[in-house]
User: Fold these one by one.
Assistant:
Number 1:
Amino acid sequence: MDIGFSSRIKLSSSLLKNSKYAVAFTGAGISTASGIPDFRSPGIGLWEKNDPFEVASLTAFRNRPEKFYEWIKPLFLQARSAKPNPAHIFLSRIENKGIIKSIITQNIDGLHQESGAKRVIELHGSARTATCPNCHFTYDTDHLFKLLNSDDNLPVCSQCGHFIKPDVVLFEEMLPEKAWRAAHQEACRADLILVIGSSLEVYPANTIPDIAIRNGARLIINTLSKTPMDHLADVLIPMDVTQSIPELYKMVDC
Ligand SMILES: [Zn+2]
């Protein structure tokens, strides 16, 4: 650990301790150590194999459900079997202590909740559950797992026979209204926003930290790559989140 690293963590910790309403904003980078690929960033990882609009759009779900499920099934299985890494676990502990009031996430893997976080706002939905678009019957993880693993047929609704849709936000879809509104409220209320593992390039999710900053919130960015908001940050921590977040927890805990 170099001096630059520890002083950045120390400064972040004192900003967090002095904040009245700190909010975390997380992206794919917090889950890569749990083996989850980046799902919504064209050009990165997952999309080298698939054109996102061919498989991950509402049109694909409606017109080519077999291709859609071929794409979503491994994502679902990954999200279901993945385990929270130290960044999830120690972020949850910071939240449980009340130092961070909520976690707004672009991720669909449910790992914040699994690591014990209480207030999680999922901007892009969840890969762990599904809903029938026709009759709105809902399917929990175990039910969805059974359906996706039953045989080679596509998962259909047990109530009405329509194809069911995992609760992830697809291209051509709006963000879930309730989550979007909650995230807006948090952004307006926040006096500090801690960005973890997000390149802040995916619109419209990236407007959330932007709103907070415009309202005068302090900004800490812990992302390995550069982001378009780096010049606005009070502290930049371009470090591996599985190292920085546990360190940050140690500092805010004393
Ligand atoms: Zn149905």
Number 2:
Amino acid sequence: MKESCPGSKEITNPSPEDLKCVHCGTVNEIWSDEPDTQCKSCKKTIDRVMKINCLMWCPAAKECVGTEKYEKLTKAMK
Ligand SMILES: [Zn+2]
């Protein structure tokens, strides 16, 4: 098993975080590997700035978090 960097831990071991809806102010739960979620109150999509910048420059990012998640997250960051 390859050792992963601290930045990718949020993706390989996601944890719930609070995300406040910009539309209605409701606090929603979002997992640290999700770039967006749907507000439970107003049903609008809430985007957020992903903290996981290492994916953008790390040459091993793809194998670090897995191809599927890598592509989903890098797409969301553009
Ligand atoms: Zn809302």
Number 3:
Amino acid sequence: MELGKKYPWPRPARCLSCKSSRVWGHGYVQRYYEGFLRPLWTRRLRCPDCHTVYTLRPDLFYRGFRYSVLTILSSLASKISDLRWLPSIPRQNQQYWYRGLKLQAQRLGNVPFPDGDTVKGIILSGFIPVSHLLDCAMLRL
Ligand SMILES: [Zn+2]
């Protein structure tokens, strides 16, 4: 999966330091994020008035899911290794993700009890690990 430079970065309308409305693009840097094998392109912005540089963290989302990828993967990791759901997220959401994972694990590898390697394998194959759809190729960003 590649987070390219076409990602629709949210940008602040005003500088958070000096309130200037002139916040300009300032190139991209590659950053590593938890759960990703390769660095992701990360947008930088710069305020020409006070010279503050902003680095915008990508909040990645799977299509159709309102929680971020990192949240979903954290939930799966907790369920798989600690046999419990994350306390901060509604249980129904996490059960839904886990059922999706079981569905994809069965479909792609005939694995009845998915573990961390199963999740990685599904992601590296380019699929959304928690999708309930059979056609769930990940949206390329
Ligand atoms: Zn500024």
